[in-house]
Amino acid sequence: MEIVNTFEYQNMKTEVISGYINGVAFVSVNSPLDIIKVRMQESNTNMLTNLKDIFFNEGFKSFWKGSLFPLMTVGINSSILFTLNKFNVSWISRWNEKLNKGVKKYFLAGSLSGLGYGLVITPVENIKIKMQIQKKNQMYKNSFDCCCKLIKKRGFGSLFQGLGITLLIEVIGCGVYLGIYFSIKEMFNVSNHHSIMMIGGLTGCLSFLSICCLDPIKTKIMSREFSESKINYWEEIKQVINKKSKMGIVPALTGSFISNSFAFLFYELSIKHLNKYLA
After folding, report:
1. What is the enclosing helix (H) or strand (E) of 4?
2. Quick one: which of 78, 115, 155, 208 has the most CB atoms within 10 Å?
3. Contact, 33 vs 255, CB < 8 A?
4. Given this model, what pLDDT does residue 2 score?
5. What is the CB-side half-sphere exposure of residue 160 using CA atoms within 13 A?
6. Residue that wins the pLDDT comparison between 20 and 9
7. Helix segments in the chain, DSSP class H
8. Which range has highest mean pLDDT (59-68, 133-142, 261-270)?
9. Rounded CA gap, 110 and 82, in Å?
10. Virtual CA dihedral for 157, 15, 211, 188, nearest 10 degrees?
11. Residue 65 phi, psi dihedral angles, 5° rounding
């Protein structure tokens, strides 16, 4: 009961709303570079080839292909992530006073939050990737059509294809993502808008680098049909390390820096104004 009391309900409301705004800002800014990254990972082609192919053959709007479903759901997912993180930070602080400050507390809280986040984001990622790899011969009209056809053809469980690799990615990635951002913010008492954007952008880049060998594997798992043979994780990792498989690292890092800069800025601004409004 004490742990629950420590996590005030006013804080929960603030985290839910601010987390939602963070997620919407992230997807809106990141979508064009994310589709290039996914195409590179799925087809093993370079960035310029995919950029020209999407722009000239599919049209400018295609850079936001598959973003409708994430836009409608990522806000909720992001709310869950930041709310879980706030609760976990509070719980860890009371559970072990030695972890009351520093990177360890925020990394552990972020990793635990990543478990819940990975579970809810897997269906969204599945639909997004299946939409993004579509070119001219489209199997799905839109994100909702994709969702309905997957459930009708293969059952509800098909939406959780690649759950294992997604959970692993989010446990590591969220640990780095939230751990570095909140520990730096606490350490240097950061409040300046430009500093928040810089830290947010760097945090996003470091988070991607921590899982960059696993991300192409998730793309390949989620883009394949159930009838295809299972993917050998270790062989895929070796191909990534040997540069035989494209990681999409340039568009991913560029997208991570820009989108997370704005995402964390809007998150902090929301926290600031909601605290005044809800006080």
Report:
1. helix 2-6
2. 78
3. yes
4. 43
5. 9
6. 20
7. 2-6, 9-43, 47-52, 68-95, 103-132, 143-154, 163-188, 193-211, 215-223, 233-241, 249-278
8. 261-270
9. 9
10. -170
11. -65, 130
pLDDT at 208 over 80: yes
pTM of the model: 0.82
**DSSP 3-state of 170:** helix
End-to-end CA distance of the chain: 23
CA distance 279 to 276: 5
Among the listed residues 189, 16, 178, the one whose alpha carbon sits nearest the alpha carbon of residue 112: 178
Check residue 178 and give its pLDDT: 95
Task: Report d(CA 77, CA 26) in Å as an integer.
Answer: 12
Most confident of 62-76, 100-114, 133-147, 214-228: 100-114
The amino acid present at 191, given as its one-letter code, is: S
Backbone angles phi, psi at 242, to 5 degrees: -85, 5
Give 256's contacts (C-beta < 8 A, 6+ positions apart). Answer: 30, 201, 204, 205, 207, 208
Q: Is the pLDDT of residue 99 over 80?
A: no
DSSP letters, 227-244, are TSPPP-HHHHHHHHHTT-
Q: What radius of gyration, in Å, describes the C-alpha atoms of the chain?
A: 19
Q: CB of 15 within 8 A of CB of 79?
A: yes
- Within 133-162, where are the H helices? 143-154
Distances (CA, A) of 271 to 72, 234, 268, 274, 278: 21, 42, 5, 5, 10
Residues 49-92 have pLDDT tens digits of 888 888 888 887 777 776 777 777 888 889 999 999 988 988 88
- pLDDT for the residue 6: 44
Q: SS3 of 140, please?
A: coil
